[in-house]
Write a sequence for this structure.
């Protein structure tokens, strides 16, 4: 087979293109799988933090880049208030076109790429949605909305 390829330049090019395409598809599939696993790990860790009511574990799930102490305190208070409710499910949802846009006077501290939805075990099935984004190679983190442009 190699002898046949060495005799025909267009077959060499076709073979190289097919090998390149196969490698590209393998890399895209690997990255997609790694990304999905990172998102699911974030959701699993969020559920665990809720179940154990571990404020430090919950805070470790957030990206704190650019967050001032006042905003950090507000987020911590919101976490403590949510610990009063029992969590039913934590689900990874795709980012909708309307999600992750800057609000009036707010901007995310990471680029959002997924929504983590928490459903509480209340008669009304109350829920909360968290934006999450990839923080470098360390995986996904929950996003904090920061004041400013």
């Amino acid at each position: 087979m190699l002898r046949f390829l060495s005799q025909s330049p267009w077959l060499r090019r076709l073979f190289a293109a097919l090998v390149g395409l196969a490698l590209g598809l393998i890399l895209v599939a690997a990255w997609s799988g790694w990304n999905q696993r990172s998102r699911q790990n974030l959701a699993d860790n969020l559920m665990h933090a809720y179940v154990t009511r571990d404020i430090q574990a919950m805070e470790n799930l957030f990206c704190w880049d650019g967050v001032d102490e006042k905003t950090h305190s507000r987020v911590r208070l919101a976490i403590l208030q949510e610990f009063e409710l029992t969590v039913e499910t934590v689900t990874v949802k795709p980012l909708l076109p309307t999600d992750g846009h800057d609000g009036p006077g707010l901007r995310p501290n990471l680029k959002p790429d997924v929504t983590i939805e928490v459903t509480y075990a209340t008669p009304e099935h109350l829920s909360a949605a968290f934006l999450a984004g990839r923080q470098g190679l360390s995986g996904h983190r929950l996003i904090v909305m920061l004041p400013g442009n």
